[in-house]
Amino acid sequence: MSNTYEIRAFNQKGNCYSVRTFGNEKEALISFDKICNKMQGYYDVCKENDLTTSFLAADYQLVAYNEAMTWLEEIKTWEPA
Fold this sequence. Notes:
This protein is of the alpha+beta class. It is 30% helix and 33% strand. Strands 2-1-3-4 form a four-stranded antiparallel β-sheet, with helices on one face. A hairpin with a 5-residue loop joins strand 1 and strand 2. The protein starts with a strand and ends with a strand.
C-alpha cells in the first residue's frame, strides 16, 4: 500500500487554502523545500521594505496518508522565521 503525500498551505487565520498532492515522498520533499525557501524569501523582502505579510501563507505542512490510515502523518512543517 503506497502513501499519498500532500503539501498544505494555511493562511493567517489557520485555514487551509491550497493542497498539492504527490505520489511519492521524494518529489513531495523536494517541492516542500522549494516552496518554503521561496516563501521565506518573500517574507524577508516584505520585512526589509516594511510591507505587510498578511497575504502570504502563514505556514506549510507536509503530510502523508494511505487507504488504511484514519489519520494524517505529519512529516514536516514550516513557519516564517
